[in-house]
UniProtKB/TrEMBL annotation:
Protein name: VanZ-like domain-containing protein
Regions crossing the membrane: 20-38, 50-68, 74-92, 99-119
PANTHER family: DOMAIN PROTEIN, PUTATIVE (AFU_ORTHOLOGUE AFUA_3G10980)-RELATED (PTHR28008:SF1)
Entry keywords, A to Z: Membrane, Transmembrane, Transmembrane helix
Phylogenetic classification of the source organism: unclassified sequences, metagenomes, ecological metagenomes
Residue span, VanZ-like domain: 47-117
Species of provenance: hydrothermal vent metagenome
One Pfam family it belongs to: VanZ
Length: 139
């Protein structure tokens, strides 16, 4: 377990379980990206773009926590996954390539990176650093 995960108490669930959940999420994104889904009208125009952004944000954020030392691999891997899935969709008779989907996938990855590092550096450290040092005595 890395030093960061010790700080935030990630030992409550084994890293193997967390990693397995992450890989199941990746499989879910791949399957949902390539299967034929029933045509449903969008309740909110562009909501599928938001779904792309949120999906890749959640995947990336999850993997930043579980594979903390591999940030470049996570960023490049999920960007490549989003690109490849869009290309593969263009090869199916029921899906098509959308450049904006690709952009939203990449935006989700980069946004997760920014949010993760900001929270890690500021919020999480400040919340848990006092717990790790123990109580202070005196003024």
């Amino acid at each position: 377990m890395n030093n960061y995960s010790n700080k935030i108490g990630a030992g409550l669930i084994s890293s193997g379980v967390l990693r397995s959940i992450g890989w199941l999420m990746v499989v879910g994104v791949i399957v949902l990206s390539l299967i034929q889904l029933p045509a449903t009208p969008e309740a909110i125009p562009g909501s599928d773009k938001l779904l792309h952004l949120v999906s890749y944000f959640l995947l990336s954020y999850w993997f930043f926590h579980t594979y903390f030392k591999h940030k470049i691999t996570i960023i490049s891997g999920f960007m490549l996954l989003g690109f490849c899935l869009e290309i593969l969709q263009s090869l199916t008779p029921y899906r098509f390539l959308e450049w904006l989907d690709m952009l939203m996938n990449a935006t989700g990855v980069l946004l997760a990176c920014v949010v993760f590092w900001q929270l890690k550096e500021n919020l999480i450290y400040s919340l848990f650093s006092g717990c790790l040092k123990g109580p202070t005595v005196g003024p």
